[in-house]
Amino acid sequence: MLPSQALLPAVLFALAALRALASDTFLAAVYEHAVILPHATQEPVPASDALALMNRNMDVLEGAIKEAAQQGAHIIVTPEDGIYGWRFTRESIYPYLEDVPDPAVNWIPCTDPSRFGPTPVQERLSCMARNNSIYVVANIGDKKLCDSSDPSCPKDGRYQYNTDVVFDAQGKLVARYHKYNLFRSETQFDYPKEPEAVTFETPFGKFGIFTCFDILFYEPAVVLVNKMQVDTVLFPTAWMNVLPFLTAIEFHSAWAMGMGVNLLSANTHNTTSAMTGSGLFTPEGPAAYHYDSATEEGRLLLAELSARPRLSPTYPPAVNWSLHATSIEKFPGENNTFSGAVRKDIFTFRELRHKDGNYTVCQGDLCCHLVYQMSNKRRDEVYVLGAFDGLHGSLIKYHWQICTLLKCPSTNLSTCGQPVETAQTKFDMFSLSGTFGTSYVFPEVLYSGVQLAPGEFEVLRDGRLKSKPGTSKPLITGTLFGRLYEKDQPHPLRISL
Fold first, then answer.
1. For residue 396, which of 20, 43, 46, 116 sits 20 to 30 Å off, Cα-Cα?
2. Is the pLDDT of residue 492 over 90?
3. pTM as predicted
4. Is the pLDDT of residue 225 over 70?
5. Which of 292, 234, 226, 293 minimizes the C-alpha distance to 260?
């Protein structure tokens, strides 16, 4: 007979499974981690130094995992780059990498650590999951040797991948995902040859996983939701906030609503790099979120979520995003427009000169319609209605269609489109719609101080983003963010593969 201590993880896992099966909900956790970074170097450090740094970060993550488990969480997501940071060249990251096998090998690193060579990071993550009876999601680096028989093999004889791993409550490796859409600064990693649609089943729903920049593209993000029909997406990220449309909490909450799934988003925390913003997002809005640009502290978030949101009685109905906008005449005054830049994207804007009104702005194939009433029209604040229909990006170009009600940083109209974090104007009501040429539209509402507006707006079936009834806080932006994936240009760094 096995000693009672050896039986404990199995007993805890069985209890966790029964607890999950007894309910249509599950308790999820994400941890925003203030990563301990290595010293920037062009040369590899000794493997012992690399492991020491990773253990320092895993010490922090283990504390968060234990706390989440003690509060009853079934799964916890930790951030991209959360174990070793991001200050690397291709050569200098090598000591931090491990060989991550295909989960089909049926492996529990905690109980069989030497099966695939030295894997101390995977062993420790596996034991965190097993000892706390909780699914653990982490981001690490995978290395795969290759040779001249592979024409795509890098010159140094190995592939290096930005990799997510998932260990179940027994510590078994159940998912491995190689990031497909690398950000421009990730030169230390290789692109996988094909996109991966990684899913796994749990007693509390079907899960998929991808990483950071992937969320903006059709593969794997849309494939996982529409074709693989996952209930929840696990999302380790190292997201640098970009106002006015791409702060982490703003876009990730909107994506979960637009795609109709849960999104467990765990961001790194580094205010120098404008990294903060994590959350547990649902089709109905944020269940919990955190944004903190003032301190360097991590944060654990927990929330109870629907295990199968599509079966929930509160699941939002399907939306025809262009139905309302294409059924009405353009509001007068469209010629009173001007151009302004949101970063490098040239928008067509129209100033909201009155306390209330109806406005239309068009660009390309997109016309945006706004009906609004301000609580008070301040002389020191300017709002605009904006439209953008075109390719975004420099190295990587992908197609956006955006309708936005947007605050300008000052009364000088040339500043419209530049970042602004605070406002003083509230709206009694607004209704925003557009003639979108896509079914992939993500509704965003952002309040002063970079805060979300849960429960204070709705998306109608005819595609209107509407306040209900007014904004409780001053408004930075109300935006409908559309993606025309079929008009994206091929990724220039992936063409050569």
1. 43
2. no
3. 0.94
4. yes
5. 226
